[in-house]
C-alpha cells in the first residue's frame, strides 16, 4: 500500500487521495453550548474540557458562517509558507469544521441554516461537525445525510474511552451503547464517522487504553467508523482535571513513552482506518502538563524518527 512516504494512513494522505490536492481545515463556531455545560446533564463540563469547549482555536462565534469562513481562510493563509500564501488554493480546498462544544446541539432549523450556509460556500469541499453521540436525533442524522449528497459530511464523536468507569469519572455523560447506536445510524445514512480517543486519562493504564484501541479497530473492520483521532491528555488551567491533578497527581506520559505507545496503537489499527491525529495540541497558554507537548515541532520530528526506527508499520503492510 502506498502512503506517499507517510508511515500510516494519515488525514493529509486521505484528503489528497480524495480531492487530488491539499485541503485545509477551517475551525468554525456554531455558537452552541453542550449538555454537559448548560445544566441538562451538568454545569461543569467534562473534567478535562477548557471553557473554550474543545474549540480554543475556532473562529469567534458570529452570526454569519461565510464571514467566519473568510476570517478562518485568512488565518490559514497567514500560516502558509510565503510561496504558497501568495496564491489562493484552487476552489474548493477547505473543510468547514464546526469544532466548538457540541456541534449538533441546537434546534433543527438552526442547524439546517448553519450547515447549508457552510456547504453552499464555493470554497468548502467538505463539512465536518464535532459532536456527542447523544445529540444526534434521527432528524439531525437525516439533515446531515441530505447535505452529504451535496458535499461529503463527516461527524466526529468524542468517545475518549470504552471504559464506563473512566467515562463516569470524566463526566462524559453517556454510555458506550449510545456511541455504538450513533455510529450505526450515521453509517446507515452514508456519513463518514471519526472517533476521538484520549490517551493518558487518570486510572487508565496501558492495557486499558489498548482495549479502547482494539475495540475501535473492531469498529473499523465492522464498517462503523472511518477515522480516529488519538489525543494526548492535556491538563489545562481552569479545568477540574487541573484541581484533581494537583490533589491526586497521576502518571503523565513522557514524550518518549507517549510516542512509543501511540505507535503501538497505530499498529493495532486496520490500515484502511484514517488516522486524523496522533497527538493533539491544546492551547499553550492553558497547558499545565505535559509541558513537552507544547513543542509541536519536536514532538512531530520525534514521532517521524521513531516510526522510521521501528519500521514495524511498513513491515506489517508489506508482509
Ligand atoms: S462534551 Fe465536549 S464540549 Fe461538552 S464538556 Fe465535554 S469535551 Fe467539553
Offer a concise description of the structure.
The protein is an alpha/beta fold and 319 residues long. 41% of the residues lie in helices and 15% in strands. InterPro entries: ELP3, Elp3/MiaA/NifB-like_rSAM, Radical_SAM_C, rSAM, rSAM_horseshoe, rSAM_sf, YhcC-like.
Descriptive tags:
319 residues, TIM Barrel, two-stranded antiparallel ribbon, 12 helices, 41% helix, binds iron/sulfur cluster
Any overview of this molecule?
This protein has 319 residues and is an alpha/beta fold. The chain has a single domain, classed as Alpha-Beta Barrel (TIM Barrel), CATH 3.20.20. It is built from 12 helices and 9 strands. Helix 4 runs parallel beside helix 5 and helix 10 crosses helix 11. Bound molecules: iron/sulfur cluster (SF4). Iron/sulfur cluster binds next to loops. Keywords: 4Fe-4S, Iron, Iron-sulfur, Metal-binding, S-adenosyl-L-methionine. Its cofactor is [4Fe-4S] cluster. This is Radical SAM protein, TIGR01212 family. InterPro entries: ELP3, Elp3/MiaA/NifB-like_rSAM, Radical_SAM_C, rSAM, rSAM_horseshoe, rSAM_sf, YhcC-like.
Helix-strand layout with pairing:
Elements: H1 11-19, E1 24-28, H2 65-79, H3 82-85, E2 94-98, H4 108-120, E3 124-131, H5 138-148, E4 153-160, H6 164-169, H7 176-188, E5 192-199, H8 206-221, E6 227-232, E7 235-236, H9 240-247, H10 255-268, E8 274-277, E9 287-289, H11 296-310, H12 312-318
Parallel strand pairs: 1-2, 2-3, 3-4, 4-5, 5-6, 6-8
Antiparallel strand pairs: 7-9
Helix pairs in contact: 4-5, 10-11
Amino acid at each position: 500500500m502506498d502512503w506517499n512516504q507517510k508511515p500510516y494512513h494519515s488525514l493529509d494522505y486521505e484528503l489528497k487521495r480524495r480531492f487530488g490536492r491539499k485541503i485545509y481545515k477551517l475551525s468554525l463556531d456554531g455558537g452552541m453550548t453542550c449538555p454537559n455545560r448548560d445544566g441538562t446533564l451538568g454545569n461543569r463540563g467534562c473534567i478535562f474540557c477548557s471553557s473554550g469547549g474543545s474549540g480554543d482555536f475556532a473562529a469567534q462565534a458570529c452570526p454569519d458562517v461565510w464571514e467566519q469562513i473568510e476570517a478562518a481562510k485568512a488565518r490559514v493563509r497567514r500560516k502558509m509558507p510565503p510561496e504558497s500564501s501568495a496564491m489562493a488554493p484552487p476552489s474548493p480546498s477547505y473543510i468547514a469544521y464546526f469544532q466548538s462544544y457540541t456541534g449538533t446541539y441546537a434546534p433543527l432549523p438552526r442547524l439546517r441554516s448553519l450547515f447549508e450556509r457552510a456547504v453552499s460556500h464555493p470554497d468548502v469541499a467538505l463539512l465536518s461537525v464535532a459532536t456527542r453521540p447523544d445529540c444526534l436525533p434521527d432528524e439531525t442524522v437525516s439533515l446531515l445525510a441530505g447535505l452529504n449528497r451535496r458535499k461529503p459530511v463527516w461527524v466526529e464523536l468524542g468517545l475518549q474511552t470504552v471504559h464506563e468507569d473512566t467515562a463516569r469519572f470524566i463526566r462524559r455523560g453517556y454510555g458506550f451503547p449510545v456511541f455504538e447506536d450513533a455510529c450505526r445510524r450515521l453509517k446507515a445514512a452514508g456519513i463518514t464517522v471519526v472517533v476521538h480517543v484520549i490517551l493518558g486519562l487518570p486510572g487508565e493504564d496501558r492495557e486499558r487504553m489498548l482495549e479502547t484501541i482494539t475495540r475501535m479497530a473492531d469498529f473499523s473492520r465492522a464498517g462503523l467508523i472511518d477515522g480516529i483521532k488519538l489525543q494526548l491528555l492535556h491538563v489545562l488551567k481552569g479545568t477540574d482535571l487541573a484541581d484533581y491533578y494537583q490533589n491526586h497527581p497521576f502518571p503523565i506520559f513522557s514524550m518518549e513513552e507517549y510516542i512509543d505507545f501511540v505507535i503501538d496503537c497505530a499498529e493495532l489499527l486496520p490500515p484502511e482506518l484514517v488516522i486524523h491525529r496522533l497527538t493533539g495540541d491544546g492551547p499553550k497558554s492553558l497547558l499545565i502538563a505535559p509541558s513537552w507537548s507544547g513543542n509541536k515541532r519536536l514532538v512531530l520530528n520525534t514521532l517521524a524518527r521513531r516510526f522510521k526506527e521501528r519500521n514495524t508499520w511498513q513491515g506489517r503492510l508489506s508482509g
